[in-house]
């Protein structure tokens, strides 16, 4: 277990690390998740093993601290993750981000380019989305006011998401979970998609084949983003088809 302070309050981020060669691979989980359950199997896959691998828990989630005075926007998450990477001596890393973690990875790459040599985005959120009452995911969480979510919304969401997601979501700080969902729904200016289109590092966007190509696929391809459909998979690609994920991630140009 590794730990470093990333916030003036003294809040610390924690990560698990697998030794190997540089450049490192930094794995970033999605909303309501933590990195070890989602990434350990693929980080150890023969196609990806051998590189230094950091499985990071974002502030508010998993093993990391839960500061109450942190905004949990995409930008704040990205800057905290950048501070963690700098403390770990990581530069020129390949960021592998699932869902919200992919959004954070794009923002980090835009703000801290020296830290990133490539992006593997796993069904990442590229665009703002409206809150949707009753939805079991991020849009449903964002539909609550913060105090409503703390009083009863977290319990309602827990009844909707099912046992797998709830197994990690129940460990998240409720305020961090809500603020992160609101930040993800709002996106930023520029949007995650606009930032992704401007980046020059190798980029791959993996998505479930059953969902069809992502919105704006022509613009993404024209900007050099490699789009990879993953068969036999839902949103949790690393769990549903780890073999196809490892193959696609290993084929991104660069070290």
UniProtKB/TrEMBL annotation:
Protein known as: Alpha/beta fold hydrolase
Single GO MF descriptor: hydrolase activity
Domain AB hydrolase-1: 26-130
InterPro entries on file: AB_hydrolase_1 (IPR000073), AB_hydrolase_fold (IPR029058), AB_hydrolase_sf (IPR050266)
Keyword Hydrolase set for record: yes
Domain of life (superkingdom): Bacteria
Signal sequence, renumbered to the chain: none
Record key words, sorted: Hydrolase
Organism (species): Planomonospora corallina
């Amino acid at each position: 277990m590794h730990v470093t302070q990333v916030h003036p309050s003294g809040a610390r981020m924690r990560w698990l690390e697998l030794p190997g060669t540089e450049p490192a691979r930094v794995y970033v989980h999605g909303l309501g998740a933590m990195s070890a359950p989602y990434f350990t199997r693929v980080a150890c896959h023969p196609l990806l093993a051998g590189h230094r691998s950091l499985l990071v828990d974002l502030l508010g989630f998993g093993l990391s601290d839960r500061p109450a005075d942190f905004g949990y926007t995409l930008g704040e998450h990205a800057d905290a993750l950048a501070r963690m990477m700098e403390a770990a001596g990581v530069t020129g890393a390949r960021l592998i981000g699932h869902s919200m973690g992919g959004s954070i990875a794009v923002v980090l790459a835009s703000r801290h380019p020296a830290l990133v040599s490539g992006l593997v985005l796993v069904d990442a959120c590229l665009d703002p989305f409206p809150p949707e009452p009753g939805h079991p995911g991020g849009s449903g969480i964002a539909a609550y006011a913060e105090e409503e979510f703390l009083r009863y919304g977290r319990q309602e969401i827990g009844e909707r998401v099912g046992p797998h997601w709830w197994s990690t979501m129940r460990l998240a700080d409720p305020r961090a979970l809500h603020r992160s969902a609101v930040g993800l729904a709002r996106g930023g200016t520029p949007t995650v998609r606009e930032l992704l289109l401007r980046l020059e590092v190798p980029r791959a966007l993996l998505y479930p084949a059953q969902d069809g190509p992502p919105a704006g696929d022509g613009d993404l391809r024209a900007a050099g983003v490699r789009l990879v459909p993953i068969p036999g998979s839902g949103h949790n690609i690393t769990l549903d088809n780890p073999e196809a994920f490892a193959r696609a991630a290993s084929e991104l140009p660069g070290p």
